[in-house]
Amino acid sequence: MIIALESAVRLAVWLLLAPLLPGVINKVKAWVAGRRGPPVLQLYFDLARLWRKSVVMSTLASPGFVAGPAIAWVALAGAAMLMPLGPAGGAISFKGDVLLLVYLLALARFCTAWAALETGSAFGGMGAAREVSFAVLSEVALITAVLALSVQTGNITLSEMLSLSVGSGAMLLAAGLFGVLLAENCRVPFDDPNTHLELTMVHEAMVLDHSGPPFAVILHGASIKLLLFAVLLSQVVLPVGKLSPLAGTATLAGAVLAVTVCVGLVESLTARMAFRRVPLILTASFLLCLFALLLALKGGA
Amino acid sequence: MTAGPLILVAAGGTLAGVLSGRFSPRIWLASTVAGVSAALAASVWVLAGGAVWDWHSAFRVGGEPLHLRLDAISSLFMALLSVVGGAGAVYSLEYWPDSAHPRSARGGRAWWSVLVMSVGGVLLSCNGLHFLIAWELLTISSYFLITRDRQRSEVRAAGWLYLGASHAGTLSLFAYFTALAVSTGGWELGPIHGHPELAPLFWLALLGFGVKAGLFPLHIWLPSAHANAPSHVSAIMSGVTIKVGIYGLVRFTGWMPVPQGAGWVVAVLGVSSAVLGVAFALAQHDLKRLLAYHSVENIGIILIGLGFALVAAEHGNAAWGLLALAGGLMHVWNHGLFKSLLFLGAGSVLHATGTREMSRLGGLWRAMPWTAGLFALGAAAISGLPPLNGFVSEWLVFLGLFDAVNVPGNVSLASVPALVLLGMTGALALACFAKVCGVVFLGRARSAAAGHAHESGRLMLGPMIALASCCVAVGLAPAVFFLAVSRAAAEWNPAWATVGGPLSIATIGYANLSVVVVGAVAVSYLWRRAGGTGLRRGLTWDCGYAAPTARMQYTGGSFAGIINEWFAWIIRPTRHENMPEGPFPVRAGFDEHSPETVLEHVVEPVGRMVIKASSLARRLQHGRLQAYLLYIVAGLAGLAALVLLGGGR
């Protein structure tokens, strides 16, 4: 009973807080540009509006057009449930749960790409192709980061791996994972969520033809993914799990906010990279994670 | 009770299949299904912990007494053979019927039974001579199955290449078993202890079994053979017969001494097969050829598991060795299941549209919803996505490798690249199957043939549904299947029998189950919600083009373009560009072809050199007697010179 209640509260926290992050990013961008910008809660309003709207579906689309976003959302929410939250730990924790998390993210990617290809639109194809291709490099970087954490702690359970995180390579790892965060969540410099030129988009090109509740689910899923990566990044740098519940929660919240502000700053201060250079930056992220791994291996020996 | 009576029924049923295949499809199907069901029951019995069936007979074949044995390792492969053998047999009745192929369907049925029987023979024989006989029968029956449609020249070429490559491998196995027989004094096979001088023979086995398994540089025969065979044959070849190569490697690394460092070689071959297999797959335009390259990839994943198990055995690390081996062996099952499913799905597409070219397909989900759904399930499984079976075995291999990294020493450093590249393989496979599903089943038909497609009948869908259910079952109850696989691992290395498995495998099952349940609830809820808010259909937006033509869709080639560029150094695609010129371009075109690099850039040049050298040597023999006399005189003079100058001893 307690476990069910605890899981429900945890899920509610993830689902309710996630849409806050894009709002914060937009506020930071507006602040840097000297504008007032949309309210921080804008995504909540958008989601509520989309949920009430009717759906226009392409004449070519199969039921997978709706099923894809739904399964992707479930996979992302499931991945979020595996992620430990500071002192509270994860909802379930077992040996190798980190791999389940990585593969749930892959499941979400597969479903989003599937839904994008449903309409036969060339933009959907472009977006999906870019998403799955860049994901190859970011997944490699992510696995390397997981390996570095695993070597540091001698463990492959997420809650254990993240408890002892201040190693010599923590900053390298944080820099590498920040790159992965930006790429996986389609932020500048990899993708511009605000662009109006479909030819240059990744994530937005995939969801061009979505509308109504399925689109709301896609947007909400994307915000869960952003929160997931921000939480992961924060816990890689800070040993939140070791603090007292109150201090740990406060530190984690502060760190997630700091990561979000950083994303907003990057977005305000840099331009989107040309597509040809995207693999180069992702490779750089991978190399940062690899150096962290080598440091961990060296330290272990 | 032992598995003996069941094996007898299985042998009887398959033999009846061989005899009845030419005359009656019904009797053939009944006896084949009865035979494979009995074989499945026997293997389940052994895998569930029943007694190993070991049968010595006084009956002699080729002068050697018959010795058959069904233990956990052979049962593992036997179970896969039974499932795929049965499913493919049912499928073939509709896919390759007498009415459409009056000449080749009859022989195809008989050869199918011969293939099933010879694989069974390879799995059961404990005698080197009988093993080789069954092996050769397997090669020949596969050849006749591949070349069912031998009016087409590319089918004949594929069959010829298969036959040549397979016999190169068989030659190496002849050397292996003969050397073994010479040093042990008999053809009898079994665990050999205390003969470290036999270890170098492992390299012969690796070559021979590696050709059959299709690991990376030895895979040259595989893409064309799998692409040109009838689809049910591609399914059993990719699902089962290439696994027989893995069986040979597992069997003989378990029984025989292995040289130092063999594990590393196997692991390196595995990693290169995995990454390059999927890279080549991405560059393909032919649906079945693409699937064939994925077999190379998955054989690589299996070999990574086996290679690290060998390393673990060498270093005495039972715990992670068991994980790696169990992952590899479970991937044998899983790949057998989902790859057969995918080939049968590709067969349905080919049956309905008459083409394997992905750029002529598209939008098939409307006409073939079942095929599309089942193919999508197979695609998710082969990409290693939860909640399906591919994830479970890749997870086990990953877990073994992660534990290996945490062991201090050189093993740790060396397993890092394997892990990173295994992760990369998963992401590449996902990219590839997103491409296949999107281009073949989604969007709009790219040709008239694809527009007039029709769904397959019950005999073709039934086996696909059965295979898909197996994929789901392994995903949802991995602990049960892990138990069976760890019995095989204990048979491979008896010292590992007492090592406990990871308890979290059951948790993976629950996690997969909850993904299925919550996913189903979410899909139905969102579907109802989307319908409830007033669902309208409209044209795809596509930047405002009101009447998009099918050719505006993204093609498979452009989808894979980004990744292909990363691997252009080995894929070496040839491009023909005809760029549009002037303000009103008349014609423009672009086409790209990805050759089989190892075959066209390595094997063929070497072959041409050998032929050139031989034809030069042939000039010596021309039938002119005077010249022959001259050779003799020159030879004698040479010998005389040798005797006189060499001291004349």
Spatial gap, N to C terminus of chain A: 45 Å
* Low-confidence residue ranges of chain A: none
Can you give the helix content of chain B as a percent range?
over 70%
Largest interface: A-B, 80 and 83 residues
- Secondary-structure element order of chain B, as H and E? HHEEHHHHHHHHHHHHHHHHHHEHHHEEHH
Question: How many strands appear in the DSSP assignment of chain A?
Answer: 1
Assembly level: heterodimer
Summarize the structure.
By secondary structure, chain A is mainly alpha-helical. Chain A has helices at 2-17, 20-33, 42-52, 64-82, 97-117, 122-153, 158-161, 170-184, 203-206, 212-237, 245-269, 278-300, and one strand at residues 56-58.
Description:
The complex is a heterodimer of chains A (301) and B (649). Chain A has one domain. Helices cover 70% and strands 1% of the residues of chain A. Chain A is built from twelve helices and one strand, in the order H-H-H-E-H-H-H-H-H-H-H-H-H. The model of chain A has no long low-confidence stretch (mean pLDDT 90). Chain B is built from 25 helices and five strands. Chain B is globular, with a radius of gyration of 27 Å. The model of chain B has no long low-confidence stretch (mean pLDDT 92). The interface between A and B is large, with 80 and 83 residues.
Which descriptors apply to this entry?
heterodimer, A: 301 residues, mainly alpha, 12 helices, 70% helix, B: 649 residues, 3 domains, two-stranded antiparallel sheet, 25 helices, 5 strands
